[in-house]
Structures are given as C-alpha cells and as structure tokens.
Amino acid sequence: MGESKPEPKPDKKRVTLRDVAEEAGVSLKTASNVINHSGRMTDSTREKVQEVIDRLGYRVNVSARNLNRGKTGFITLAVPTLTAPYLSELANRVIDAARGYGYSVYVTTYAEGSAQGAQSLLRNFNTTVSDGMILSISEVENLEAADLDVDYPLVCVGARSTHGKADHVTPDDIQEARLAAEYLFDHGATRLAVVGSRTEPEHIDSVREAVEGNAQLRLRGVLEACAARGAAFDSRLVMSTGQDWTIGSGARITQQLIDSGIPFDGIVAFNDQLALGALFTLAANGISVPEQMQVIGFDNIEEAAYFQPPLTTMDSCLDWIAPTAVSRILDRIDGTRVLEPSYITTQSHVIARATTRV
After folding, report:
1. Higher model confidence: residue 39 or residue 233?
2. How far is CA 354 from CA 15, 270, 310, 357, in A?
3. One domain, residues 183 and 309
4. What is the mean pLDDT of the chain?
5. Could you tell me if residue 4 is inside a domain?
C-alpha cells in the first residue's frame, strides 16, 4: 500500500494593516503611524499596537508603500570601477548606510573619460527605477556645471569640483596630505619623495593653486607642509604615475626614485596600493623601513594593517563619507525642505603603524 501523505495546507493569509488596526481596536491611521514611527499618541496605545504587530507577524509591504509615496525605495551609487579597494569599500558602506533607512542601492560603474562615462550616466539617469544618485567622480572626468545641473537628487563624492550644482561630500585632501607630510617630518624625515603625482616635475608650481583632483590637492598639501617647515622640496623626487595608482606602479616609481641617486628619507604615497608597492621595492633594495626610509599612504585599506611591515596611513573617512552622502541624498529625495548645494567636508587623521618611527 502506498504511504498516505497529509494534504497540503493552504497558504496562510497575509496579515494586512487593517487586520492590525481591527485587532488593536485603533484606526488605520493610528496603526500606520506606529509602523512609520510617527504621529502623536499615548505610549500605551503605541505599545498595544506594536504588540499586535509582533503577535500577528505583520510585515510592511515595501513595494506598495514606496508606490504610494511616489518613491522606488532605491538609490544609485555610480563609481568608475569596483577594482580599487577604496571604491569597493565605499560601495559596501553606502549599502549598509542606506539599509538603515530602509533603502536599497543599485551599484553601477561607468567608463571613465569616454562617451559612456559620467556625462552619459547623468544625462540618461532613469528616475522610474531609482530615486537619486550618489556619484563618485573619476579623476579623468571633466564634468561641466551643465552636466551636474540635473532635475533629480544628486550627491557627489570625491575630489572633483561640482561647480556649486550638487552637494559635494569629501575629506579635505590638502589638509590630509599636509598632515601626512608633517607626520614624517615630526618623526625624523628630512627630504620627501612623492609617489602618485599626476603632474610632471616641470609643472609642479601650478599645483600650488590646485582646487580639485586627489593627486593635485595631495601634492599641494605636501608642498605646503614643506614650506611651513622650511624643508627643501626637490621636484625631481616627484615622478608622475599618470592614472596608474596600483601596487605595480608604486614599485616601479620607487625604483626610479632610488635609481635617480637623489637622497630622500621619506615617501608620501597617494594611496595605500602605491605605498605597498613602494615597500616591496625598498625591501628588494635592502633599504630598511622605518630606520632608513619612512613611508605613509592614504585610505587605510584592509591590506595596509597586515602587510610587513604594517603601513602607516591616512584614514579614508569612509565611515563618515558613506553615511553623510546617504543622509544627504535621502534629505533631497524627501524634499520637505529646500537645500542649497553644499560643500560638506571633514578632516582625516594619521593611523600610525610600523612604516614610520615612534
């Protein structure tokens, strides 16, 4: 005889907000206010409704709620690449920050400096699938004010100008680099080399008035620190990496600096990958760190703490950038108050490890 099986039970009826209101003996409006943490009512009423919500297992229908509000419940994060550790970490932190507000994040990349770059992305943004955009502006994008003058919520991160057309959330790169160089001086360095410049040595003076670009602003900060300390700065110790800020580029440039024969005892590398490449080359040449050479990077990527020796670096401020950008974009999506485009900044700090002296 075949084994008998129980008949499948019908699907459990979805609990609605009306069910919650009827069970709690309150109006639909009151039940909705408890769900949305809004409205005025006594604590006992709020607690009674919440008890019913928990007991019945009511779950908010997010899609329906967003539809009623005229919102999608999504924001877009656009970055030039997810290969760079800094940008992948930015994406993770933006997703986490948005989740705290009940929002989801579409992450997309764009082709830097091409017809399919940030300009195209801004021009073709689809507001039916996303409520606004957080844009990480690539160093090779040349966005004009008109490109950023859009009719949807936009917040930009990175070191490129937004021409006063969009909110700009960024650390102070000049202060950050000045602090990095001063830290090396304070710990015994006397002559600094730079790894990560995108400016040829003969054009270094033009950087003293730089107002945008990670590499330009950081080089300006180093120059200002040298001037403030009365330390000589040899432009021959600045060799351009172009747009290549990888470990391999840091290793190659550091070898060129060593081969030049020009003395130096400190390296300011404009990101941690460049700094790790520099450390590789220094070890290959038998140059001890930090006894003979001190090195500082930027961004505090995960690998920095576990390299040998562990890398002294500047904090990325991502724990500030991501929630600040998300909060700002959601304020703009909400639209209940007029917000002028703002420059929103903070200051970084040194994370001291073993590539600098105590």
Report:
1. 233
2. 58, 18, 5, 7
3. yes
4. 92
5. no
What's this model's pTM, rounded to 2 decimal places? Answer: 0.80
**Alpha-carbon gap, residue 228 to 348, rounded angstroms:** 19
181 and 232 belong to one structural domain: yes
Query: Cα separation of 125 and 74, whole Å?
Result: 13
Burial class (CB in 10 A: 0-12, 13-18, 19+), 68: exposed
Residue 7 above 50 pLDDT? no
Peptide bond into 290 cis (omega under 30): yes
Residue pair 354/312 in contact by the 8 Å Cβ criterion: yes
Tell me whether residue 221 is in a domain.
yes
Q: Which of 85, 63, 123 is nearest to 302 (CA)?
A: 85
Length of the chain: 358
- The three-state secondary structure class of 89 is helix
Residues 191, 262 within the same domain: yes
pLDDT classification of 10: cutoffs 50, 70, 90: very low
User: What band does 1 get if pLDDT is binned at 50, 70 and 90?
Assistant: very low
Q: Same domain for 151 and 43?
A: no
Supply the range of the domain harboring residue 325.
72-170+318-346
